[in-house]
Write a structure and sequence with these properties.
The protein has helices spanning 3-19, 62-74, 115-121; strands at 23-26, 36-40, 44-53, 57-61, 78-85, 97-99, 105-106, 110-114. 27% of the residues lie in helices and 31% in strands. By secondary structure, the chain is an alpha+beta fold. Strands 1-2-3-5-6 form a 5-stranded mixed sheet. Strands 4-8-7 form a 3-stranded antiparallel sheet. The protein has a single domain (3-135), classed as Trna Endonuclease, Chain: A, domain 1. Strand 2 and strand 3 (44-53) form a beta hairpin.
Amino acid sequence: MSYRKGADFERRLVEYVRRHGGEAVRVAGSGGPVDVVAYAPALGHLAIECKVRREDRLYVRREEVEGLVAFAERFRAEPLLAWNPAHRRTGFALNAILLRPEDLERRERSYAVDYETALRVGLDPRRLFTRSLEEC
């Protein structure tokens, strides 16, 4: 997926969080472990890596997931991956599925999750403002 589509998704996520009473910043051109750092009233601090993909399976390099988790631990934030499956309509806010690293299958060089599993175990972004992850 193009840089522009990924950056647009990140901007939409930041705007969504702000519009619903949270705060968020996009780490523009980060190339680092997170794309968005946010505070959501129901969950607290979040470190979010955004992915826009057209496949029915999301693959994330192992270094990316481990970098996200390490960053989140240092900042006492909840690590999340926000997947926008651009070719599908999830029914979730922003057409995004929020996934915890433990929701993904660990493989030799990557982490992966298929679309159906992501819908079942993932979170609708509306949950950022309604209840804690433990209740989800």
